[in-house]
Amino acid sequence: MNLALLADVAAGGLLLGGLYALIAVGLNLQYGLMRVLNVAHGEFLMLGGYLTYLLHVNLGMDPLLSLAVSAPVAFAGGVAVHVLLYRRLLRQERTREELEANSLLISFGLLFILQNGALLLFSADIRGYQYLDRPLRLLGTVFPTNRVVAFATAAAVTALLVLFLRRTLTGTAVRALMQDPVGARLIGVRVPRVHALCFGLGVGLAAVSGSLLSMLFELTPFVGLPYTITALVVIILGGLGSVGGSLLGGLILGVVEALGVYFTAPDLRMVISYAVLALVLVLRPYGLFNTMARRPGQAGPA
Amino acid sequence: MGTSIARRSFLKIAGGTAAATWLPRGAGAQSPIRIGFTLSATGPYAVGAGITQRPNYDLWLDQVNAKGGLAVAGGSRRPIQFVEHDDRSEIETAVRLYEKMANDDKVDLLLPPWGTAMNFAVAPVANKAGYPMIGPTVGSLKLKDLNLPYFYAVLAQPDAMMLSLANFLKDVKGPQKLNRVAVIYVNDLFGLEHHGALMPLLKDGGFEVVEVKSYPLGVKDLTDVLKGIKAKGAEILVGLSYPPDTILATTQAKAVDFSPAVFYTAVGTAFPFYRDRFKGGAEGVTGVGAWNPKVKYPGARAYFDAHVAKHKKEPDRWASAFAYATLQILEASVGAVGLDRARIKAHLDATEFTTVVGPVRFAKGVNSATPGMVGQWQKGEFEVVWPPERATAKAVVPKPNWQ
């Protein structure tokens, strides 16, 4: 067994894992806060990718620079979707099960609308562009340059998000609401606003991930769903509602997948992901890094 | 879908009227010929369907209806009307829709869906209902085993296609001192059958096979596989791939700096998209195929120009022209024997057709007049480089490094 090649493969997995983490964090922010499971997450990712593609190919904008466009546009779009579709649902006092079921239905509807809208707009043709696709020699091996750049960007965006959650008053309100919805309300957190903000953030993060992924992979209107599934695996791995857990979960999944695929075949990538998922569900049903089990306010119905 | 509902209610009204009042025979001559098919507008097959088949169906419909309709033997021209559905890249959906079109809608003719696995699944339905069906995008030897007399395949099948690849490789092996081959293939009927056909030929050719890996349809990442192949020193890469993974394998081979002397990928290599996507990087890439507007068959250039004029994009350099050829064959058959499907079948079995891909002749349902071919991107055109008697240019081996 060639150890250098093994390390090489693992490092490649880590790079992709960084992107998995970013995708999952956005989804987890929405679910952790509102119990809204947005299965159209991947569709927002796909739209972010197309936006970057269009800006790069038609206006010659640097794909990295296009993040400055795709992130705010998606954020605004996310807030609008929240106001139009989810606000009423969240306002009505229902059980968590009902909320989860109904929000799931809405997001399934969104998924089909966005996917077919993209199909009408962009057709089923594969789209892509070349960006930093030269090999980068690093630590005695080669990596695709764009993958390293995408990873670094994802890491920077995640760091910003963590700073926002830890260091700002709004971020504190978000965390308060995640930990204890009733308590947060009592101390005067404006819940609908924080909800809208977080939904917007989630969509914005999806779009940023999509913009980054469009540097690496081709786009079709159907690229979204597999990423939603990957994000779900990561979230369950790291723990529902845990941002730090999603980060570690993403990196772990990236490495496990890369090594698993290397030793078996790419055919088995999904099998490997699901095996990891099943293992975690059996051994640590609340996720590898989640402390949710210890929080009585979250364990039962809210 | 909206149109199909409108059409259905139209038919209901038309049917009711026809039953209530006796129509003179002549009125029937003006009614449209209804041709049914499904194409994947969504799902993983949508890319191939949207590039290779859909534009040609639409082009043909326009051309025929502009002439006043399809000429039917012993009658006048009748306009064509498509009865079409999205099969969503789901095989069971396609089968259900073909059953409906054949048994309930009773369309006049059927056209095939896109892709080997799809054709494989719906061919028995068409065959049972007695609809001749000429598949432009199907490569499967197992189809022969199903014994479907009404199904025809116009592309060179896996045995012929892989034989031509193996012969091409043997031809460059000696002078270039190439020996180590790596094979990756998509885990779909197309990849499985071509892999099955290729492996014994590589063995007979004395090649050293350093790696064989399959990957699933819709695979996202091949970098690790390609890194492994590079580490094993492969000089020839054969990818028995579908469009999205053809692009993926090329992008990622480039990104991990793996540039073997022969880089061969399958479906999608011949798409103009591939050339436009990789620009200089496409130079020297070989692929399954091939066809280009320089071939000397009647109507080839006119077809190319009409496709560009209608769709504002070039046809792909392999199966697009074959898809159009199947429509030419159908048109010629209806012109010769009318809409009686048994007679169309007899005509298909007995006739050599002139098409934009050259002469086509079916022997036991397989086009025996077109050999397997290898194409190569050279300065913006997908040149036919093998076999020599069909070649439009000489192969460039080793391929230049990625640009």
Please characterize this protein's 3D structure.
The complex is a heterodimer of chains A (302) and B (403). Chain A is mainly α. Chain A has one domain (3-227). Chain A is 74% helix and 3% strand. Chain A has helices spanning 3-34, 41-59, 67-91, 96-122, 145-167, 169-179, 181-186, 191-216, 224-238, 243-263, 269-283, 296-299; strands at residues 135-138, 141-144. Chain A has a two-stranded antiparallel ribbon. In chain A, strand 1 (135-138) and strand 2 (141-144) form a beta hairpin. In chain A, helix 2 runs parallel beside helix 4. The longest helix of chain A is centred in the N-terminal third of the chain and has 32 residues, at 3-34. Chain A is globular. Chain A starts with a helix and ends with a helix. The model of chain A is unreliable at 293-302 (pLDDT under 50). Chain B is α/β, with parallel strands linked by helices. Chain B folds into two domains: 2-157 and 296-367, Rossmann fold (3-Layer(aba) Sandwich); 158-294 and 372-390, Rossmann fold (3-Layer(aba) Sandwich), CATH 3.40.50.2300. Chain B has helices at residues 2-20, 25-28, 46-66, 91-104, 116-128, 142-146, 158-176, 189-204, 223-231, 243-255, 272-278, 300-311, 319-337, 341-350, and strands at 33-39, 70-71, 77-78, 80-86, 109-110, 133-135, 151-153, 180-186, 208-215, 236-240, 262-265, 286-289, 352-355, 358-363, 366-367, 373-378, 381-386. Chain B has a seven-stranded mixed β-sheet, sandwiched between helices. A three-stranded parallel β-sheet of chain B has the order 4-1-5, with helices on both faces. Chain B has a three-stranded antiparallel β-sheet with strand order 13-14-15. In chain B, a hairpin with a 2-residue loop joins strand 16 and strand 17. Chain B is globular. The N and C termini of chain B lie far apart (45 Å). The interface between A and B is large, with 41 and 40 residues.
